[in-house]
Design brief:
The protein has three domains: 11-107, Nucleotidyltransferase, domain 5, CATH 3.30.420; 121-238; 249-325 and 338-411, no CATH class. The chain is 53% helix and 8% strand. The protein contains 15 helices and seven strands. It has helices spanning 37-49, 64-73, 95-107, 119-151, 166-176, 182-186, 191-204, 211-246, 271-279, 292-302, 313-319, 343-354, 362-374, 376-397, 405-427, and strands at 11-16, 20-24, 31-34, 54-58, 77-81, 326-329, 332-335. The chain has a five-stranded mixed β-sheet. The chain has a two-stranded antiparallel ribbon with strand order 6-7. Helix 12 (343-354) crosses helix 14. The termini are far apart.
């Protein structure tokens, strides 16, 4: 029986923790180092002394990032692996055993590396994720505003669509500054609101202005404005990064018109052109449910060279946690339920959710058909996968997305069903007769 041959003879396994790291080498005792920068440099010198050219380590929280960058800068090939994919033998789960086991698996080439984007994408990912975190925190303070107004029995949120819009922010700022007259507060609304429902706005602004609730509103308003400032700072950093990367590049010959971004649009000058320069003219933002904002977030998560990391669209959909999870053993073939998280997959899910109520899109017709067949969650995941596949094709093959509408989709689905029925009838020796 042939034995396994070593693919990486000069490799090491590293277990990374918050206070120390453990390095396992073949035929050597496990060495441990602290996680200070000087100790990382000593660890790299230790690896070079033993002529190590490749290293494997688990993706443990954010502890691996600094060591990964320093090893890469030192010219050592680093393979980052998902801890769930590394199977341990019973009784071997310890920091010392971890690094030894990683070293053995890596020496035989049995580890599958995680997706690590290039440095530009990693910088962009940091800024976009920070921006998303600030948006999430700001939304929580919008809820605090709602609560404070409700406690004062001010029902403005029942009359206008967005409390944190221009009208709502002006009214809340005036309340905090001491204004109590409903007529004066209503005058701060936009003209379009006052034309149709001025009386309702005035009625909603009569409340019980207790000092403790006004203080709570002031706190929520200040926190919301603080996070809006933080979001603006992130936008400036993103714009500077995109400009440094794209200003010297020529614009693509054909640039499509950008879509309107309804909520939380990045304040970046000429964002659409910058993104088109990065993608080489490929425009996934034209996909139903996607905009320049979502395209920016997707590029920060996946980069622009998708085919370098995922050779097929099925691999890309699986990485985004949008493919059905199957577990096959012998004749048993069933779905295995376990949680998988993917930021890119979540963006595609949000895009699917945003088009679910559309009455003109082919993708929304697909969503409704899958919802009637298998339920809401299945429909959202299936539609998100379809959007991800179209995104992959546009980014790798340069195709142009054209929304053909719901009528053409229904016509093609009807033709498909008719072909299936005709095939089934022929197999049974029957013939379809139209009524």
């Amino acid at each position: 029986m042939p034995s396994l041959s070593k693919i990486n003879p000069h490799c090491a396994g590293i277990d990374v923790g918050s206070e120390s790291i453990f390095i396992g080498l073949e035929d050597c005792d496990v060495a441990s180092f602290a996680t200070f920068t000087d100790d990382y440099l000593k660890a790299i010198a230790y690896l070079k002394e033993h002529h190590i050219t490749a290293v494997a380590m688990e993706a443990t929280g954010v502890y691996w990032i600094t060591l990964f960058d320093m090893l890469e800068a030192a010219g050592i090939i680093v393979t980052l692996v998902n801890g769930k994919q590394v199977k341990y033998l019973p009784g071997r789960k310890s920091d010392v055993a971890d690094c030894q086991w990683l070293q053995q698996l890596h020496s035989f080439g049995l580890l599958r590396p995680c997706f690590i984007p290039d440095d530009l994408t990693r910088q962009l990912r940091t800024y976009t994720r920070l921006r998303a975190d600030h948006l999430s925190m700001a939304s929580s303070h919008i809820q605090h505003m709602h609560k404070a107004l409700t406690l004062m029995n001010i029902k403005l949120q029942n009359v206008i669509s967005q409390l944190h819009g221009a009208s709502g922010m002006r009214i809340m700022s005036a309340i905090v500054q001491g204004e109590r007259d409903p007529q004066c507060l209503a005058d701060l609304c936009e003209t379009s609101i006052l034309k149709t429902k001025r009386d309702r706005v005035v009625a909603s602004l009569k409340g019980n202005f207790k000092s403790e609730h006004i203080f709570a509103l002031k706190q929520a308003l200040g926190a919301y404005n603080f996070y809006q400032t933080q979001i603006g700072e992130c936008d400036k950093q993103i714009e500077a990064l995109l400009s440094a990367h794209t200003d010297h590049k020529p614009a693509p010959p054909k640039i499509t018109l950008p879509k309107n971004i309804r909520h939380n649009a990045p304040k970046i000058d000429d964002l659409h052109t910058k993104l088109m320069k990065m993608t080489g003219g490929n425009d996934p933002s034209q996909i139903t449910g996607l905009t320049d904002k979502t395209l920016l977030e997707l590029i920060a998560e996946t980069g622009v060279q998708l085919q370098d990391h995922w050779t097929t669209e099925k691999q890309f959909a699986s990485w985004a946690a949008l493919a059905p999870s199957m577990h096959q053993s012998g004749k048993s073939n069933k779905r295995k339920k376990f949680k998988k998280n993917s930021r890119a997959g979540q963006i595609f899910r949000e895009a699917a959710l945003s088009i679910s109520a559309s009455k003109h899109s082919a993708l929304s017709a697909f969503f409704r058909r899958m919802k009637a067949k298998k339920g809401f969650l299945h429909a959202m995941k299936a539609t998100a996968r379809k959007i991800a596949v179209i995104y992959y094709r546009i980014m790798t093959k340069g195709i142009v997305f054209v929304e053909r509408g719901i009528e053409l989709y229904q016509q093609r689905f009807k033709e498909q069903q008719l072909r299936l029925l005709q095939k089934k009838a022929r197999s049974l020796g029957l013939q379809l007769v139209p009524t």
